[in-house]
Amino acid sequence: MVHFVGAGPGDPELISLKAWKLLQKADLVIYTGSLINPAVLDYASPAARLINSAPLDLDTICAAMITAEREGQRVIRLHTGDPSIYGAIGEQMARLDEAGIDYEVVPGISSFTAAAASLKREYTVPEICQTVIITRMEGKTPVPEREKLRELASHRSSMAIFLSASMAVDVKAELLAHYPPQTPVAVVEKASWPEERAYRGILQDLDRIMQENNITRTALILAGDFLRANGRSRLYAEDFTHGCRSI
């Protein structure tokens, strides 16, 4: 079996116990070297063969997994964050399906949750916002017309924008189509890493924040009233009853 494993956002302690156990038994670990904290690789078996997938194409990556699995090796495909979010695992799983090879996906902590933790904020603030939009600015990889950033901004929801740090001017312009200029924003670079940097401001200054701090990659852009607003959930209200509490 091939295991697609989430390595977490960067902090080597933010990895699941299941992922840690699999790494310790691995014969082959193919990891996204451009994004994963090298400290996570210390969990791998000393006998494991490590391959950095950053310079490789899909054919080469899948061929390595298929060959190793057919030789009876334990194969780990290690992705940053959670593999289900911009992990490009679908195309790899399709190749394994074609080859008749079984696989599983082990979830991980995403950088968008690590960023919220760093900022000590809750994306879903009662009576303020109950929806989180995870998206990206259109770049070399297109997005469907209905999912253009400007269209999504019309909801005025809490927003976590991936893979867009180098396009801050465009992100700002798209969001300003619906969000007020004073909307709070935050930029979190390398969330949970030792060298993490986080900056807060308002939407109209987003590109300036990025430029002044020389942030061009591996950073999340967050936008929405959740960054400054607090609400109160009915869950813990004195007069609220549910299956575990009665008045």
Q: In a few lines, what is going on in this structure?
A:
This protein has 247 residues and is α/β, with parallel strands linked by helices. It has helices spanning 17-24, 58-70, 90-99, 111-119, 149-153, 168-175, 206-212, and strands at residues 2-6, 28-31, 49-52, 75-79, 103-106, 132-136, 158-162, 184-189, 197-202, 219-223. A hairpin with a 7-residue loop joins strand 8 and strand 9 (197-202).
In CATH, the architecture of the largest domain is 2-Layer Sandwich
Low-confidence stretches: none
Strand content: 15-25%
Helix/strand-derived class? alpha/beta
Task: Tally the structural domains.
Answer: 2
What is the class of the largest domain in the CATH system? Answer: Alpha Beta
* Overall mean pLDDT: 93
Helix content: 10-25%
Helix-strand blueprint:
Elements: E1 2-6, H1 17-24, E2 28-31, E3 49-52, H2 58-70, E4 75-79, H3 90-99, E5 103-106, H4 111-119, E6 132-136, H5 149-153, E7 158-162, H6 168-175, E8 184-189, E9 197-202, H7 206-212, E10 219-223
Parallel strand pairs: 1-4, 1-5, 2-3, 2-4, 6-7
Antiparallel strand pairs: 7-10, 8-9, 8-10
Overview of the molecule:
- It is a single chain.
- With 247 residues, the protein is α/β, with parallel strands linked by helices.
- The chain folds into two domains: 105 residues, Tetrapyrrole methylase, N-terminal domain (Cobalt-precorrin-4 Transmethylase, domain 1); 117 residues, Tetrapyrrole methylase, C-terminal domain (Methyltransferase, Cobalt-precorrin-4 Transmethylase, Domain 2, 2-Layer Sandwich), CATH 3.30.950.10.
- The strands form two sheets. It has a five-stranded parallel β-sheet with strand order 3-2-4-1-5, sandwiched between helices. A five-stranded mixed β-sheet has the order 6-7-10-8-9, sandwiched between helices.
- A hairpin with a 7-residue loop joins β8 and β9.
- α2 crosses α3.
